């Protein structure tokens, strides 16, 4: 069994700097969706792998370091540094400086003493291990003192029988779609280099930032006197974190139930699942019947804009949509009623709605803060559509995916694809301990949740 306080030791830290890219501007301007994330924590996601056979750890680190150099050549904003400037006539601007001295990304080689791959994966009914946050680099809060923090930092941690690759990716540079685009491209480059093939990315990133017309040239000016006015530090109370697994068969039944109950055929699987979690968590919290409660969904804009943004657009392109009702209405009505609320806010998020939101933002720019989220709500981020389990560095499919300590608060839910594919979904749920205990007994949830895939199946040591 692992120690209650396992030791993660850093063996060596590399600064990875790509060769110059002639297409990279000296100053990389940020869109409205980007600057709104200036106070956000890093995106911290990572993948667990069985130890590659016939490879020394030194070979693995060198492959990853060399391929990261190439990846940063293509995803060049990640090798710059944030620059925040106070304007002469008031206000603050921010851009990425590509010519900044000391640019590049960090790559840390670490060892987790006594931790096995099985210890990384919570068994059915168990909380996620607290030591997972030690498998990710960088502090949670952005440091604007000199703007020297890298925009990307990677930690490769040796385990007993495996390795974990954890990335900390500054949210100003991109959203979850861009994060996994980069991660998969890095893996593709590593596979090519391992067999001596030329690197030709299947999905080159698109770096032209999207700006709405009518507001002059970038950079966007924020109405603050200094970064101290918008960088908010957040320390969550003690939380319980659990991964709930939903098989494709269970989700198909849930979707059919939601559509049947609301008399439609338009409710998606994820809308039905979001409605389920909203109802079950609200019930677990025991709020008063007339209390307002909300379900917030992070929705990307790429395919909704006209003309569409490329799916390879590298940056932020998302909004958090909000469905609101009272506790009484949410729980007195059925699943289909709640799913229809979620469906409506997604359906209404059209090209014109997105442009209206950006126009309103440009009239009064601001920076998002976790404190803006209502404590009576849930927030669902991530996506089961992110391509995590095809992220092959040349030694096989990942065994699992998990996050660090960033962006964790009561009511935060992150969506992941299920390891077995086929439309299965994993939800990482963060709640106050008393709420999680009540959720674990909720009959509506228990009727849908499924046992997780066994580690032996993932390793191929026994069949399903």
UniProtKB/TrEMBL annotation:
Keywords: Transferase. InterPro entries: CAT-like_dom_sf, Sec_Metabolite_Acyltrans. This is HXXXD-type acyl-transferase-like protein. Gene3D superfamilies: Chloramphenicol acetyltransferase-like domain. GO terms for molecular function: transferase activity. It comes from Rhynchospora pubera.
């Amino acid at each position: 069994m692992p120690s209650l306080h396992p030791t993660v030791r850093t063996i060596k830290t590399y600064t990875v700097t790509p060769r110059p890219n002639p297409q990279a501007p000296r100053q990389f301007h940020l869109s409205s969706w980007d600057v709104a994330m200036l106070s956000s924590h890093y995106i911290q996601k990572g993948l667990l792998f069985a130890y590659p056979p016939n490879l020394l750890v030194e070979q693995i680190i060198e492959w990853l370091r060399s391929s990261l150099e190439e990846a940063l050549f293509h995803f060049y904003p990640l090798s710059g540094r944030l620059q925040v400037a106070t304007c002469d006539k008031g206000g603050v601007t921010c851009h990425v400086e590509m010519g900044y001295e000391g640019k590049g990304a960090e790559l840390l080689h670490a060892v987790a003493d006594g931790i096995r791959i099985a210890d990384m994966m919570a068994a059915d009914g168990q909380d996620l291990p607290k030591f997972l946050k030690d498998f990710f680099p960088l502090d949670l809060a952005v440091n604007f003192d000199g703007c020297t923090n890298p925009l990307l930092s990677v930690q490769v941690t040796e385990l007993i029988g495996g390795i974990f690759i954890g990335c900390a990716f500054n949210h100003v540079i991109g959203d979850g779609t861009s994060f996994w685009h980069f991660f998969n491209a890095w893996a593709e480059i590593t596979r090519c280099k391992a067999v001596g093939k030329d690197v030709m990315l299947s999905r080159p990133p698109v770096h032209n930032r999207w700006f709405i017309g009518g507001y002059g040239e970038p950079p966007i000016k924020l109405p603050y006197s200094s970064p101290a006015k918008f960088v908010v530090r957040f320390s969550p109370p003690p939380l319980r974190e659990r991964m709930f697994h939903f098989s494709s068969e269970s989700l198909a039944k849930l979707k059919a139930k939601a559509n049947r109950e609301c008399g439609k055929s338009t409710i998606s699987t994820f809308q039905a699942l979001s409605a389920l979690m909203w109802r079950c968590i609200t019930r677990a919290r025991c709020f008063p019947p007339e209390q307002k409660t909300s379900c917030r969904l992070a929705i990307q804009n790429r395919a909704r804009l006209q003309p569409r943004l490329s799916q390879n657009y590298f940056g932020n392109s998302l909004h958090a949509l909000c469905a609101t009702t009272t506790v009484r209405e949410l729980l007195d009505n059925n699943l289909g009623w709640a799913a229809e609320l979620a469906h409506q806010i997604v359906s209404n998020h059209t090209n014109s709605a997105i442009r209206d939101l950006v126009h309103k933002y440009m009239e009064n720019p601001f920076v998002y803060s976790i404190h803006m989220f209502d404590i009576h709500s849930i927030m669902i981020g991530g996506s089961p559509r992110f391509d995590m389990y095809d992220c092959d560095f040349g030694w096989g499919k990942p065994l699992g995916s998990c996050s660090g300590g960033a962006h964790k608060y009561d009511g935060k839910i992150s969506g992941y694809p299920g390891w077995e594919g086929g439309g299965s979904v994993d939800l990482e749920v963060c709640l106050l301990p008393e709420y999680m205990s009540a959720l674990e007994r909720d009959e509506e949830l228990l009727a849908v949740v499924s046992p997780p895939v066994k580690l032996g199946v993932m390793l191929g040591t026994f069949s399903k």
